[in-house]
Amino acid sequence: MKHKMAIVGFGGMAGWHYDEIQTIDELEIAGIWDIKEERRNCAAEKGLRVYGSLEELLADGETDLVLIATPNDVHKPAAVAAMMAGKNVISEKPVALNAEELQEMTEVSEKTGRFLTVHQNRRWDEDFLTVKRILEKGSLGELFRVESRVHGSRGIPGDWRQEKAHGGGMILDWGVHLLDQLLQLLGDTAICSVYGVETHVTNQLVDDGFYAEIGFENGVTALVEVGTSNFVSLPRWYVMGADGTAIVEDWALHGKIVRASGVDEKDVAPVITAAGLTKTMAPRRDDSIFTEELPVVKSDVREFYYNVMAVLEGREESRIRLPEVMRVMRLMEAIHKSAETGEVVREVL
User: Fold this and answer.
1) Does this model's pTM top 0.85?
2) How far is the C-alpha of 23 from the C-alpha of 180, rounded, in Å?
């Protein structure tokens, strides 16, 4: 079965979708609409149909799917209009600016019977899937800490992402990915505390970075951090269990697992520091630890599209569920609230 998809907004992310879809036989781009003439011209140069307006795009009876790849503040009105026109919808992330907007979109989806999903593409990141595999294997012992970071040094891109009205800022831009990944790792475990701090190093209008300490009901704590003024990047992942630690340095999956071998260290040789001795921080003996390579997991992000098409054909359930998306949205709001008040948010999420 061939599915035809129209695209609203033909900027950088839509171009990425375009390239991926060229490799999928079952999915075809019917055409695009963008308010900017240069983007419409770019699409025309690729041989794509350029609709005369959003209304013309939504009136095309040959399309069963609409991808919304606009600035964040347009996601909700475009998605609602598309569903009301009988179209199924993929929205770029974040699906909306807040939980209230997402709730309205969900209600329209239920009312119209149209499928609504979100392109949470970083569920297919291989560094995330590798960490997920490590935790599934249980080789670190009882998990007690997860740290997830992305660092850059170029500030916020010089486009709408710098503007609050358009849904700019790093919590909505990158936090939505890292928090979604974190909740996928921890499953349905309830969140009991959130402490967030936003940074404004290069931009005073929106957050150009943030970090959040998140406490879970099972005792696990997590640190999620996004920085855009970091000239030396800290590890992408640092995961600690009672019996071992895993580190993933970067997206290229440099890293390792170090875990206890089970040998009891009774006689620890002290380490001599400039100001004295320490046994507590002395390194372990080689015979008491194992060092292992990361169990690298490969992925294919096109699985997202295959799943969407299978949902439309009634063969599968969606891999991106709206209640999961709502939970991430509420967590982002809790981080904003904590950053504004300077207090820990203790709402259960």
Assistant:
1) yes
2) 27
